[in-house]
Amino acid sequence: MWVYLNGSYIKAEDAKISPLDRSATFGDGIYEVIPSYDQKLFLFEEHFERLKSSLYKTFISSPQELEDLENILKLLHKKNLHKNQSFYIQVSRGVQAVRSHAADKDLQSSLFITSQELEPNPYKSQPNLKGLTTRLEEDIRWQRCDIKTTALIGNILSSHNPTLNPVDEVIFHKDGLINEGSKSNLFMVKEGIVFTPPLSNKILPGVTRQYLLDKLLSEGIDVLEQDIDIQELYSADEVWLTSSTKEVQPIHSIDDFILPSKDPKESIWHRALDFF
Ligand code: PDD
User: Which of 9, 146, 182, 271 shows the smallest number of beta carbons within 10 Å?
Assistant: First the structure.
């Protein structure tokens, strides 16, 4: 597998990052995940805008090569051969000579990119496949979930708790309201209306979320960006998750609660799949 590291295309096994890189010592970095289908980047501009916004919000300087990101990804795509890929783009604040909370003034930010095969969404070919298992959990993450930071231990912590049953996704809530999944945004359907929590510091402004909102609206489907009370999930007709690598995937269960089973052909999540 080929990767890109600070100006060079190299084999993954030859890529070296210092242990004093601030993304390792402080989680002091941001990232982006961009999918491609049939060798074409999907929603590149939207992802690029969010990447720049993450840099702006974290005061990390933009590596110079970033302006050429689209071409870098296209070249990496050719080198890594798979038809559909997902690109991981990481910008770290840089490598510090001596560990210190305050970053050196002249620190150079670093750019690391890797790609892997994008697994096809199984619900596309098998819409009747059992949906995802999920668990509700109090949101213990920080107050800036709108930033796509590499500091993700809050998102993944409970997945490593050996006393909990493994689930496909953890759904975070706070003060009785749903925020988002640990790696996805959440949508709920009730009586033909699609609901999703509004943009705030509590959720990532998902590129897939926005893409779907626009598409559903253009199809004449009612969509509302509105707070979702936890209790509302238990009377929902559909609950689904969205992300750049999963597209749209339906939820089967939330803890012990099983969502009503519905013919995918009559479900809005299934219609939404056609947008990919
Ligand atoms: N995760 N919320 C969180 C916390 C996420 O990590 C993600 C995506 C999303 C969905 O965002 P988008 O539609 O832009 O992919 C929402 C990516 C895929 C990841 O971390 O690998």
Answer: 9
By most ligand atoms within 8 Å of CB, the mutation choice from 33, 149, 179, 187 for ligand 1 is 33
Which candidate, 21, 4, 17, places its Cα nearest to that of 88?
4
Domain count, the chain: 2
| pLDDT, tens digit, 9 for 90 and up, residues 6-55 | 999 999 999 999 999 999 999 999 999 999 999 999 999 999 999 999 99
Write out the DSSP string of 51-93.
HHHHHHHHTPPPPGGGGGHHHHHHHHHHHH--SSEEEEEEEES
Give the domain-ending residue among 102, 119, 136.
119
Is 179 touching ligand 1 by the criterion CB < 6 Å? no
Q: Which amino acid is at 187?
A: F
* CATH number of the domain to which 150 belongs: 3.20.10.10
> Which residue, judged by its Cα, is nearest atom 11 of ligand 1?
206
Q: What is the pTM of this model?
A: 0.97
Report yes or no: 23 and 92 within 8 Å, Cβ to Cβ: yes
